[in-house]
């Protein structure tokens, strides 16, 4: 039984309430994009005077900017237009995947402002070396960000494995086991950029980060609201996944939910790096796809581009490989849909560009296997991710969300640095 | 981004606040079992005087009782002991399953006070006839409840199928499709008990209801808190399921989540009544289990008892059938655990008594197939449900929870009847 109302916090002191209200106001401006003091007051349920005082503090700390032009919103008189600042506090997102590292800096509005991606093979390279290289890429990204007057409020790593408590418990495709990724990255970044020595570093599963980016920034179909209940499937060398329920990540009891790549597609199938047999990854992961298509399993990102080219040209072997992978995807996804009843299944990573060839077979399995005729072929419930559904951007946005949740706390920490 | 604090409801009027606080106080007493005004005040954050006034109203309306004896709780001075009333408002739960109907009445404390179960075959019987029979069983149960001074505040049906908006969209094992179950049951009950003509009737999937009963009343292992993140699997002729996340049911976008019985165990397996092939139900449902064990697939409840007897006696065919079903259960559950990372998987329905023979094979598959070595054989994460994990009780408790969530609203409706 869930409370919808809570008793009126008798013990909250004035400073706590103000700190909380600063966040409410900043978030209101963030969510509206451009708005006025009056519209903010109407939205958050505070007086105009209280909102004005909070806005002054947020302007003074550099979280908001205002422009002289007036803006006529739906909620009353025109006023000075408020927006979140495009300089100052920013998020640093660092995706370390099997065959690339991608780093981005997003501003308070969540916009991707700087991006640096390097394609390289991180398999069987010592973790400290991979994280050191990622730190050097991050440092170069921060140099560009600094020229745009953006200062990182924190860094968030996005990693293809089970991440918990600052550690990668297991990332089979990287060959990592119990790697203290946050600490190693933080130390390596401080070595090349001493001013980042106190920067908070966090970490997140890459599919989780990409799913959040899809949730926050993805463009839903124009005719309906963006899905808030979906499964995100990230095709890479591994197949990652994330479950979003009512606009929140489902993390599970230990933080390891979403491992759709290791759901069994065929009990007697080939051995997987995770120790099981016949996992979805063995049929629909990048390595299997490229091998079956005859592209060469180790061709990496170039191989995926080649697969797309061959499929578009009607190459029979490429089409057969994609059809088979789509069928196995659909088989496993039918179980997920029966279990979770999501609005949509979003295909990201390498699948995004392969949707035209994967989706028909997957949709066929879903239509045949989802109970109660709830899945209709071609319903649009199976779809490619938007270009915003990206792990580095999601990771960076998590940092920004933390700032918005407590701007006063960030200002204090920033002042101390 | 989730708000942890909300602005102080400026528009809530006094009557709304009092109504809300009545529920807070009733719920506090309900959750504590036996408590004092002082302890309630400390728990809900209201003054002692406010709590006393609310308690008087709840005593006057018959929701609470007090005893003269003093009780020394942890939160201050001894006082008169308060408990929720064991007479008055009650919940009526009606489980209609494939081969039985079970009806119970629970009091405000959630205690199962009256229970009437009839074993009968509901397959291929017209839905109106099944619901009419259930109504007659419910009427007899209400007669017993009335002798204990319990009055139903509402009825909740628990049904083995996809339930939404008062209708059973599909219950393949009953052969039901688009049955207006709430309306048919309400009308049939009013025909035999005219005083129930205005009784609100709701409906719920049976596995969901059983999972809630397990959540609210189940006895967790003594050495740890009761699980609040688990998958409940209900073995019956069909295999139902429910996903509980942070103490709440995960319902899905259309309310149809939890259909673990139709997750595919073998893509090329036998045709299922749902239209797919190789669903878990085809290997681990009651019909398959009894058939494989040579007990006779239509032997129903008696057949399950016979299967247990044979397994306990070491009958090789019974043991082989249970081992196979356990393996298929474990195969599908490994996917669920990889996807949702629950604390526990709880086996209910006919599985409860069969756990000693199902669990070893299932646990073996889980240990081999859950990523990252997170599943350890014999960890206790796979376990039988408690005897409280029962759909009729869960359905009845849902009615009681509604009363506790708004006692003033119930008192008004009850007065109008």
From TrEMBL, chains A, B:
Q: Which organism is it from?
A: Streptomyces kanasensis
Q: Which Pfam families match?
A: ROK (PF00480)
Superkingdom as given in the UniProt entry: Bacteria
Q: Which InterPro entries match?
A: ATPase_NBD, ROK, WH-like_DNA-bd_sf, WH_DNA-bd_sf
Among Gene3D superfamilies, the record links this protein to:
3.30.420.40, Winged helix-like DNA-binding domain superfamily/Winged helix DNA-binding domain
Protein name, please? Answer: Transcriptional regulator
Question: From which lineage does this chain's organism come?
Answer: Bacteria, Bacillati, Actinomycetota, Actinomycetes, Kitasatosporales
Which PANTHER family does the annotation name?
Answer: BIFUNCTIONAL UDP-N-ACETYLGLUCOSAMINE 2-EPIMERASE_N-ACETYLMANNOSAMINE KINASE (PTHR18964:SF149), ROK (REPRESSOR, ORF, KINASE) FAMILY (PTHR18964)
The record's comment on protein family reads:
Belongs to the ROK (NagC/XylR) family.
